[in-house]
């Protein structure tokens, strides 16, 4: 807090201005030291390009797809086109794919013009995607970075792409039922390829069953906000700790800790404190890193309307899920997510019943048949054994061939 007297306020303002100026110079120097163009020679030969213009804060959107792209690269050349120096530096140490750092629009276009790209893949709806979409002699495919029932999963922006790869029937219906004039031919079912590469458990098994609380973030708008942290996070963790018969893990969405909502940040810090001061022998913990590695050891998941809940449904269909209802409107929840028809739900007004609900699930799993039926609606009969990746590779191969036919037809016309 700044001092209350006028002189102190002036000194505080000067110190703040100096700090901001120093930080700005540091960032500017880093940018000036990073070349505008850094292209691995192998990236010039790529037939498939993964275009990701985001900063490192959103790299979780891309990293889950990297093993899939590396599998695709065994069949045809693949490269990642990046626009952020920090993302480029991080990926240089984490993937075998050739990389191209192209910070300016004109450099992206020059790369496409001299290259051999046939298909360009996108894992989000970032605004800079539209610069890449001006590339006219490739087919453009939207993948998204997770399977979710949030409104952001069926944006009208999808109409900009030649194809939209989706998990299954429910994902198709999101587009066809919610967007006007969306063409069904754009939709291609591939399952969930990133989940074929889910890592093993990040924690060793313990003597107690594991309950994971994995809330999502609040999104950019109220209609996309299904985060339970603000209203349910603390009582959920309190109820689970009170059981004394489970190991409680907390794996929040990567953007929760830096949320702009003070209530979210306060609840997040309270949850961290609860876990840090709980019984040390039970193994309670808050975790960073890969959610999929945490799901691998989860016996019951408590989650929001989010990709976390559906990834768990795909990977661990024989393990119960508790879905949160932060709006206290069961009808709206049912309309938003078909998952609600196959799982138990904890509402804002009945969180005190969560402990008994989890105990029942661990003892008998009474919603198992319902959950398996919902899983089939989301993913069909696709198993997490490489089938999704095989479908993905086959569809990319088909699009590469289609692109060649279309380009040849234009040249002959």
Layout of helices and strands:
Layout: H1 6-33, E1 37-39, E2 48-52, H2 60-63, H3 66-72, E3 78-82, H4 85-92, E4 99-102, H5 105-114, E5 119-122, H6 129-132, E6 139-142, E7 163-166, H7 169-178, E8 187-189, E9 210-214, H8 229-243, E10 247-250, H9 262-276, E11 285-286, H10 291-295, E12 300-303, H11 307-315, E13 321-325, H12 330-336, E14 344-347, H13 354-364, H14 368-379, H15 387-412
Helix pairs in contact: 8-9, 8-13
Note down, in words, how this protein is organized:
By secondary structure, the protein is of the alpha/beta class. The protein contains 15 helices and 14 strands. It has helices spanning 6-33, 60-63, 66-72, 85-92, 105-114, 129-132, 169-178, 229-243, 262-276, 291-295, 307-315, 330-336, 354-364, 368-379, 387-412; strands spanning 37-39, 48-52, 78-82, 99-102, 119-122, 139-142, 163-166, 187-189, 210-214, 247-250, 285-286, 300-303, 321-325, 344-347. The longest helix has 28 residues, at 6-33. The chain starts with 5 loop residues before the first helix and ends with a helix. Residues 24-29 have low confidence and may be disordered.
């Amino acid at each position: 807090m700044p001092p209350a007297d006028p002189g102190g306020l002036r000194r505080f303002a000067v110190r703040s201005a100096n700090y901001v100026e120093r930080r700005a110079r540091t960032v500017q120097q880093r940018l000036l030291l990073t070349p505008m163009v850094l292209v691995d020679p192998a990236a010039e030969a790529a037939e498939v390009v993964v275009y990701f213009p985001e900063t490192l804060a959103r790299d979780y959107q891309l990293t889950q797809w990297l093993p899939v792209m590396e599998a695709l690269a065994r069949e045809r050349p693949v490269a990642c086109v990046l626009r952020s120096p920090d993302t480029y530096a991080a990926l240089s140490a984490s993937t075998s794919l050739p990389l191209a750092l192209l910070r300016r629009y004109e450099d992206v276009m020059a790369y496409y013009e001299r290259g051999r790209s046939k298909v360009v893949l996108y894992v989000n709806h970032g605004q800079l995607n539209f610069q890449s979409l001006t590339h006219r002699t490739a087919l453009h495919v939207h993948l998204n970075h997770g399977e979710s029932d949030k409104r952001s999963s069926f944006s009208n922006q999808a109409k900009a792409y030649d194809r939209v790869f989706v998990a299954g029937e429910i994902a198709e219906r999101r587009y066809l039922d919610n967007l006007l004039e969306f063409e069904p031919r754009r939709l291609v079912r591939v399952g969930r390829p990133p989940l074929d590469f889910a890592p093993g458990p990040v924690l060793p098994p313990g003597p107690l069953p594991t309950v994971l609380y994995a809330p999502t973030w609040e999104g950019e708008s109220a209609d996309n906000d299904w985060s339970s942290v603000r209203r349910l996070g603390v009582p959920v963790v309190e109820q689970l700790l009170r059981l004394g018969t489970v190991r409680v893990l907390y794996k929040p969405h990567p953007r929760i800790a830096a949320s702009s909502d003070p209530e979210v940040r306060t609840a997040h810090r309270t949850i961290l404190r609860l876990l840090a001061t709980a019984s040390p022998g039970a193994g309670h913990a808050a975790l960073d890193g890969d959610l999929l590695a945490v799901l691998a050891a989860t016996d019951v998941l408590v989650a929001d309307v989010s990709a976390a809940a559906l990834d768990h449904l795909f990977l661990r269909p024989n393990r119960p899920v508790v879905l949160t209802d932060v709006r206290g409107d069961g009808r709206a929840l049912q309309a938003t997510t078909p998952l609600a028809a196959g799982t138990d739900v904890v509402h804002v007004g009945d969180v005190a019943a969560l402990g008994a609900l989890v105990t029942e699930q661990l003892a008998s799993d009474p919603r198992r048949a319902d959950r398996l039926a919902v899983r089939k609606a989301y993913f069909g009969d696709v198993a997490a054994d490489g089938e999704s990746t095989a479908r993905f590779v086959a569809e990319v191969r088909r699009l590469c061939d289609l692109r060649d036919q279309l380009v040849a037809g234009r040249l002959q016309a």
